[in-house]
Alkaline phosphatase (Arthrobacter zhaoxinii), 768 residues
Amino acid sequence: MSICVLAGCGVGTGLPGTIGGPSDPADYPGPTKTSTPTPTTTPTGTPTPTSTSTSPAPTPTPSPTHDEGDGHDGDDGGQGNDDAVNVILMVGDGMGTAQRDAIRLASVGLTGELAMDSLPEVGRVHTNSADPGTFITDSAAAATAMAAGVKTYNGAIGVDLDQQPVTTALEVAERLGKSSGLVTTAQVTDATPAAFGSHVLDRDEQSAIAAQYLRSSRPEVILGGGEDYWYPAGDPGRLPDNPAEDESEESAGTEGNLVEEAQEQGYEYVWDLPGLQAAQGDMLLGLFANEEMFQYGDDVDDVYNPTVPLTEMTRKAIDVLNGNQDDNGFFLMVEEEGIDAMSHVNNGALTIESGIEFDRSVTLAKEFAEQDGNTLLITVGDHQTGGMTIEPLGDDSNPDSPVQEGPFDVAGSDQQFQIDWTTGGHTGDDVPLTAMGPGAEMLTGVYENTRIFDVMVSVMRSGTDRDFDLQSHRGGRGEVTEESLAAFAHSLELGVTTLELDAHLTEDGRVIVWHDDIILDTKCADTAPAVAGDPEYPYVGDRVADLSLVQLQTLNCGYQPLPGYPEQDVAEGNRIAELSDVYRLAREYRARKIQFNVETKVEDGQAGGPRSVALTEAVVDVVRDANRERRTTIQSFDWSTLNLLERIAPELTRVALAGTAEDLGVGQPGAAPELGGIDIDDFGGSVVRAAHAQGYDVLSPVFTTVTAEMVADAHNLGMTVIPYTVNEVADMHRLIDLGVDGIITDYPTRLRAVMAERGFDLPRAYQR
């Protein structure tokens, strides 16, 4: 559709072995850490700018029954946090006061009430952007203000005035363990949804936006139009190129076949209403049109006829997100683009028609919120479009008005009105907001649109109590052969928060999951050489760094119980796995929310050396290839590794492992190589203060050193404390009493029992 949709069209941006303590640690998913993807700078395409549903509203899933306190029964599979607050933000793009009034008059009449007007809390929202050329906002800057709480230039998607990425409410939700979704009748990569799930310098970069949905923000539900940006040129996908209604529409993706990439990640892909209604997955991608889900603009007939109504998309999104029971609630943004599009072309009838469909969708969300009792529902416009005014018929007091439309019937009466349009662009008018649910009272009054972000995030954080972190050390080596895929599978089926594991680098540069820098005969036995006459055979007793992956995988590392672990089930014939294998296993179990705590292992005396750098870089590559950055933390006794991560992978949470005071060099002269060259005595011997000064996110100390003062100090500095390796029930209780945020253990079954006894929510148990 060849119509200018920016406020002040043409307004641009003008912006062109192993070191460490006496026992082995595990890692923690850690506190919220903002991901900072690099904005792209090359545009990838130019965006181009009545169904009635009678199905019932989505029904909130009943809260699970508790045995005691707030903890779940150990057999319920771990239903998540009952107190977690859902947030549903419903945006009528371009919907100012006049649009809401016209929708009301045409649908429910003078004394009727729209669903969106029935919400009890009322606010008035300023919409100006910070664009240097004009304060009249476009949808990109307005959406970024609501999504991320910052004013920015027109055209900016999830970046501030300095072109730096800013954390969005959707990203905060995902970090808090919530599911998230984006629903729109525009392209799913158009400005409003894009601002919640991506970071680019220009709203036109729609393929880059789609790629970031899959590779960075990863909302569980993505529904709307815009298939053209998910398929490369020449590949029309499910919807034919150059359709009769607009022959300019054709695939123009620049990031490869993103639909296939989404399916590989576990998204169920649908492209029509029957497919949407039949979808059963907990991750859903629906693309129902080449561009917007309706036609408008130059050289086409204006028509509002989405093949999948907004009501149906809204209902399905709520069902899927609310059904993800291992999540701490959900965040959902729903947009009706038709109000803005039809206001741009000064088509009052279709503005009203799309607005009525939007209000029906609000009805569904309201019914859900009322039944759920713990959902913040917000309805608002991002700006006003068209300068719409409602006037009596025959008003010729302004004969120079560009467009006067009418008559329009007032429902339930014999009265009529006409609409006067003053522009085809955006205006600087405030827009009305209505809300209900937890925190809605914070949205009364008059304020900037950035407050919407502040309130949504505040509500999500206050209503989300992170589950106690149960980390299975080396997969739970007290129960199954350590760091075997069988052990990790056992932990997934049992129900843990985090899979803790160790990583080494082979001679040929592969990242394997193994603890020791030397192959020990207590854990592995030779079977045969990797190749006939291999001079390095036998391999037991060799350094891991001197063996290739093929050589290592000839070893039988599941032939006897590990000494000291008599309860251990032996994974017969176990072969050493790669880190990528563990990620693959989690995908097979559909364990989307499981965390991975990866320890980078370095041989004694080689802290900070080239092997440490090579391993760290290789681990980062594997994590990114698996798209698990948000679910992976990196821990190390070699703090230089953590310092390197800040430079090469700032999106990853960093965990400082710490042994005893003697291990840390407390009271000893000079800097400790293991601590990245710092002297802990410069911090009064406090490992908390030393780790905090380096900017680390989590402290993971040996459990014997943990005190109430240590935990309090860490919490005051915003750090999480996850001690290792805790195997006795009495120690587990003691550490919980001290206020630790989680525990690393060889015996995850024991820790689950302790958590159940103390009323904790239990992590979900997965089945393949």
Notes: Residues 1-56, 59-81 have pLDDT under 50 and may be disordered. The chain has two domains: 87-462, 469-518+575-757. The first strand starts at residue 66 and ends at 68. The radius of gyration is 28 Å.
